[in-house]
Amino acid sequence: MPRSATSSAPASGGLQSLLASREIVITCGSGGVGKTTVAASIAAMAAAQLGGKVLVLTVDPARRLATALGLEQFGNVETRVPDELFADAGVSPRGELWAAMLDTKESWDELVRAHAPDATTRDTILANPLYRNITGKFVQSHDYIAMERLYEIHRSGRYDLIVVDTPPTRNAIDFLEAPERMADFFSSRLLRWLITPARSRLVNVASKPFYTIADRILGSQFLTDIAEFFVLFQSMYDGFVERAEAVTRTLSDRRTSFVVVSTLEDGPVREAEFFITELLRRDLNLGAVVLNKVLPEWLTDEAAGEVAAHLVRDHDALAQTLTTDDADGMGDPAQVSRVLREVGQSYLDYRVVATREREQAVELASHAGFMVAAPYLDHDIADLTGLLALGQRIW
Amino acid sequence: MARPARLELLERRLLFVTGKGGVGKTSIAAALGLLAAQRGQQTLIVEIDAKGSLRDVFESAALSFTPAPLAPNLFGMVMNTEESLKEYLRLQMHIPFLGRIGPLAKSLDFVATAAPGVREILTVGKIAWEVRERHYDLVVVDASATGHVIGQLAAPEAINDLVKVGRVRDQTRWMLDLLSDPLITGAVVVATPEEMPVTETLELVDRLEAETQVPLASVVVNKVLPELFGRGEQEVFDHLRTPAPAARLAAAVDGPVEPLLDGAQLAVTLRRTRAEHITRLRNELPEDLPLLYVPYLFTRTHGLRATHTIAEALGAELGF
Questions:
Q1: What is the pTM for the complete model shown?
Q2: Pairing of strands B74-78, B68-71
Q3: B253 touching A, CB under 8 A?
Q4: How far is B232 from chain A (nearest CA, A)?
């Protein structure tokens, strides 16, 4: 039985009713599609129109976006977007808009502080070079901590709506699996193997070959370092596994919805389709698909296309006609001719792209019931007014 | 780090092509590889994120860890850390019986989740090995996007810091030598002339220099829009858009002209906005860093034909 009908049916009343009926909205999609901007823009709209306390939790905002939200230092701490910014945009908001950025390292440290059984363990972990490397340099940790932080904020009950901009993952579903992977890891046999030599010199039969090889490759000192680190981490086992499971539950809760953001370029569309499929397969709630940077429809106008071809073909003759009884000072026929040709050619060029985009949109629509499109803006969004204007278009 | 003067991009033996998601990394990596192959270099393209984009731009069959031909002189492979580990154990550690190390291979995912840089080093290690063994004249890596590439390229150094003895430390040393040699290795950062990609490119360039030893080779500005009007023509166009001339044009062609004029105006505005971003990029990048420009392609699809077009454009930029 197709499962999309009940659990994943998009909200019927557009983004507005989706945002009014959810507590967590997670935007996802491939890099460069404007995910962060869309997240900020729908959060701003929700705060302005629906009221309540709305938080936009973003991963790596453009400095300009921070400025647009009136936030100079954009950090791990939740900050309120000043009402004057709404006033500047001519809006008197019904609710409050808050913003925070995800600082991976800081969030991990907080997690350790929360779960360490005692001060000594806490300090040893925080100072451990392996820990610092994992949290600072290596990539998988971002995915988990983003979801963990979301869970923590949601549970605090401080906000009516949290809009989350997901981290740029290698693979769009990585962050969905991160909590499970983390729980799996802490429950794994491998972890026990790693810890064994630090606990006792007795290496059992099953893990002996593993150690023989690992020892040759990594050197025993490094293995001891790893083991020590995991023994420390193991002390937080219960807290971690419980948390990871709770995070997973929050993601699949009815109060959580996913918004897939995509442009209509090949790559992002393919990734959006993949993501939609994965969401449905996991019984997660697909709230809406937001198409960003969409070229205007009139670029595919058929009659205009014929005129464009006409211009490209007959630009010289047309320039002659326009400049002969030159009532309004058209100018040099050679220049007019070149302009006509360029105008025609440019239309034909953009028509190819706009047509391709329209096909892509049709295909995406077949996967997702509810879709809104935002136009290609000829400028970057620089303030709250811009964010609200974009929000208005997709509301 | 000093950049060797006028070293041609393709004279290096290892190129990491990176950039923000969506800027066309794979297309540029593919086109660079194709260009080198066309010039007679035995070339391997390595796709790091197994998304299948590489096979799309070559319209080839599915690619795997074992290199497969894509074009004359050109081979493609997809990185797979588990295969890489098996190959490493077989070739370097002389451990051929993989059945015996079942737990290791099976648990790789767990190890990689926790132990720092295991995945990264298996990725970079395999690539560096192909270069060291001179199986190819040039290895082009369709590397990870901005967020992940630093971790990958810095992995040998990080491991080198963490592991004080053992085989891995010996291994990371030659990798570092190879990766840090500007005559051998170069990073190519792809950007598009838009705000975020330019900002991220500038940040990435700084981080590459600060946090990795991989020398920066070039920045490719992709999807550059064409200039519509030359000197004096903009005025003619602006005049043409006013009601009376527009009406006369409509009468002359006997059809709707408004979409065309609006379309041309949109094209002019987009081009102008993007030009500002290009200027910012050029002004803020190190002066001796070469910039290569690739035009926006108004094509139906992004298959093999587009890859050839981009290769041609890059060839022209490199003066071939």
A1: 0.82
A2: antiparallel
A3: yes
A4: 8
A286 with A279: CB under 8 angstroms? yes
pLDDT score for A145: 79
Q: Which positions in chain A touch B230 (Cβ < 8 Å)?
A: 338
What single-letter amino acid sits at A375?
P
Mean pLDDT for B76-92 is 84
| Beta-carbon contacts of residue B125 (< 8 Å; ≥ 6 apart) | B84, B88, B156, B171, B175
A37-68 confidence digits (pLDDT tens): 899 999 999 999 999 999 998 876 666 677 77
- Express each pLDDT in A76-125 by its tens digit: 788 899 899 899 989 999 999 999 887 777 888 888 888 888 898 888 88
Identity at A27, one-letter amino acid code? T
| Contact: B22, A31; criterion CB under 8 Å | yes
- The full set of domains in chain B, from first to last, is 9-226+277-317 (3.40.50.300)
Interface test with B, best of A67, A128, A137 (most B CBs within 10 A): A137
Instruction: Quote the tokens at residue B59.
Output: 């319209």
Residues in A 101-140 with any Cβ partner in B closer than 8 A: 129-130, 133-134, 137-140
CB atoms within 10 A of CB B210: 9
> Is the separation of the CB atoms in B23 and B189 below 8 Å?
no
DSSP string, A165-176: EPP--SSTTHHH
Please give the single-letter amino acid code of residue A188.
Answer: S
Query: Mean pLDDT, to the nearest integer, of B92-108?
Result: 56
CB B143 within 8 A of CB B48: yes
When pLDDT is averaged across residues A327-333 and rounded to a whole number, the result is: 78
Which of A130, A184, A322 is closest, CB to CB, to B252? A322
Q: Is the separation of the CB atoms in B27 and B33 below 8 Å?
A: no
Question: In the structure, what pLDDT confidence band is assigned to residue A12 with cuts at 50, 70 and 90?
Answer: very low
Domains and CATH numbers, chain A: 4-295+376-394 (3.40.50.300), 298-355 (no CATH)
The amino acid at residue A40 is A
For residue B218, give the nearest of B73, B12, B49 by alpha carbon. B12
How many A-B residue pairs are in contact by the CB < 8 A criterion?
Answer: 242
DSSP state at residue A46: I
Closest CA to A226 of A238, A236, A211: A211
**Cα B138 from Cα B136, distance rounded (Å):** 5
Residue A22 has phi, psi (to 5 degrees) of -120, 160
Per-residue pLDDT tens digits for B234-281: 999 999 999 999 999 999 999 999 999 999 999 999 999 999 999 999
